[in-house]
Design goal:
Blueprint (H helix, E strand, L loop, with lengths): L2 H15 L10 H10 L4 H17 L1 H4 L7 H8 L1 E8 L2 E8 L9 H18 L6 E7 L13 H14 L4 E7 L5 H8 L5 H4 L2 E3 L26 H14 L2 H4 L4 E2 L2 E2 L4 H16 L2 H8 L7 E3 L6 H8 L5 H4 L2 E3 L26 H14 L1 H4 L33
Helix pairs in contact: 1-2, 3-7, 5-6, 6-10
Length: 404
């Protein structure tokens, strides 16, 4: 290890020793990887490590119950191929999904299995590349996947990989892009940073990759000369299963109970709980605000509302989904609500929305001092009993996303 790098590793380790909430079991080479990915900046490296460790603590959907020889993980491994290839000074990372019927597809298990493989790569891959080229094979992607995925968790996990993992993303190629990829991307694009959108390139087939990457660096499945993806993927899984303790040893007990006793029930609990946590402000307000929600009307619904709703439906509580009704225009409201209760903008007889909105803003501005109080109606979580049954969320101190 170069002397300068060794000194930087020592500095990071001294910082870790002063941070009681961060683990102390990151070895020197992993710290080197973090430093390398952040171009030697100690401040950025600290933020990256903070993001890496803190997110793993709160993303329970992925970082709990990671037994690599469990039936669910073995199934997830069997329908994916994950591989990496050195390409000159860069490194290629490939993810391929192989379940065209979606018979075995479980969104959470796919992400969980990928997290295990990413950890193994972090520990075993000694190459420090100038940049990473990501290849996402969309060959078996289907619109039928949309109702079964959690778009908010995809965004959070993707951002975690970019901000918390020691990588330098140079380019993302989405190959074998289906005919509807533009519609799918249009739904996902709003939740992705513009820096990422700018480096994503969709290609119609794997042969198109040859215009961008030398064939000698690509796997045989893509007409290349490098090792087969399936062969390498199998080798990674063999290593993971031999070293199964790294993913399972510290995550197989919850509240002192062995999760083998209630593995299935707990996964169901996580998925159900996730609907509440990831549905964002709507679920939080409906559960915590003093309101009695009877019906939700989404009016002036665009032609693609069904596709949009299919995307967010999995992360909304079923009670909410059952009371949402889409209407094509404001006149349709008259069939459900008497016009005398509707604002003039909707053909009703009540006060104008704009006039009432302005009145609310005036009142808010007059009561400005109250809203400047950041502690208004907040609980003091530092005084919260450890035996409290409600879970807290945790905000980390994360680095600003920077794509090279």
């Amino acid at each position: 290890m170069p002397q300068d790098l060794q000194q930087e590793v020592i500095s990071i380790r001294e910082w870790l020793a002063k941070e009681p909430h961060l683990p102390k079991d990151l070895d020197d080479f992993i710290l080197e990887k973090f430093l390398h990915s952040c171009y030697g900046s100690l401040q950025k490296t600290k933020k990256c490590i903070e993001r890496f460790c803190s997110t793993r603590s709160v993303m329970s959907e992925i970082y709990i119950l990671r037994n690599p020889i469990s039936p669910s993980m073995e199934t997830a491994f069997s329908i994916t191929n994950v591989s990496n290839y050195e390409a000159g000074e860069n490194e290629i990372l490939i993810h391929q999904f192989e379940d065209p019927t979606l018979e075995k597809f479980n969104f959470y298990d796919i992400l969980k299995s990928f997290s295990i493989q990413a950890d193994m790569w972090l520990m075993e891959q000694k190459f420090l590349p100038e940049g990473h080229i990501i290849i996402l094979d969309m060959n078996n992607y289907s619109l039928r996947m949309i109702p079964r995925i959690n778009i908010f968790l995809i965004r959070e996990f993707f951002m975690y990989l970019l901000e918390g993992m020691p990588v330098r993303v140079k380019q993302i190629y989405a190959i074998n892009a289906p005919s509807f990829y533009d519609k799918l991307f249009a739904l996902i694009k709003p939740v992705l940073p513009s820096e990422i959108c700018n480096i994503i390139q969709f290609l119609p087939d794997c042969q198109s990759l040859h215009k961008h990457i030398d064939k000698k660096y690509l796997p045989s499945e893509y007409g290349g000369e490098a090792e087969s993806m399936k062969a390498q993927h199998k080798n990674w899984i063999d290593q993971i299963q031999k070293a199964r303790n790294f993913s399972y040893e510290h995550s197989h007990t919850i509240h002192g109970r062995n999760t083998d006793e209630f593995h299935t029930n707990f996964e169901i609990y996580l998925n159900n709980n996730d609907c509440i946590y990831l549905s964002g402000n709507m679920a939080i307000y409906l559960e915590a605000m003093p309101v009695r929600v009877k019906q939700i009307y989404a009016i002036n619904a665009p032609s693609f509302y069904d596709k949009l709703f299919a995307l967010i439906k999995p992360v909304l509580p079923s009670e909410i989904c059952n009371i949402i009704q889409f209407l094509p225009d404001c006149q349709s409201l008259h069939k459900h609500i008497d016009k005398k209760y509707l604002p003039s903008e909707y053909g009703g007889e009540a006060e104008s929305m704009k006039a009432q909105h302005k009145s609310w803003i005036d009142q808010i501005q007059k009561a400005r001092a109250r809203f400047l109080n950041d502690n208004l109606w907040k609980a003091d979580l530092k005084k919260k009993s450890k035996n409290n049954s409600f879970e807290n969320t945790m905000n980390g101190s994360f680095k600003t996303l920077c794509i090279d």
